[in-house]
Amino acid sequence: EEEKTKDNAVKPLISRRFSGLDGEELIDVVNLKCDSVLVGSLLCESGFFPAYHMSKGSWITVALDGTIPDDKIKMLLDMSYYLTDKINKPKIQRKKKELLG
To answer: Does the model's pTM come out above 0.70?
Structure first.
C-alpha cells in the first residue's frame, strides 16, 4: 500500500480544448481542494479551471503545463493536503474560526 503524502497527487490528462485553451494535445492537471473563498479569484487566472469531476465550490483543476508558477502550485498543494487531512482537520477548523472571529 502506498503511503499518502502531500507529494503524491494523481495527475489526470485532459485535452487543452476541454480546459478552454487552443489545441488538441493533452495536458497534465491536478485537482486540488481549495478554500472556497479563493476558488472564484483563482478561476479568473490562466491555468485554473472548474474542478474536473469534483465539487466546484471547493475544488479546482490546475494545469501543470507551466502556466502557473511552481511556488503557487506548491502553496495550493499544501492547502489541499491540510484541507483533506482527516487527522488535523478539527484543528484547522478551530484555527479558522479563531481567525474569523
So the answer is: no
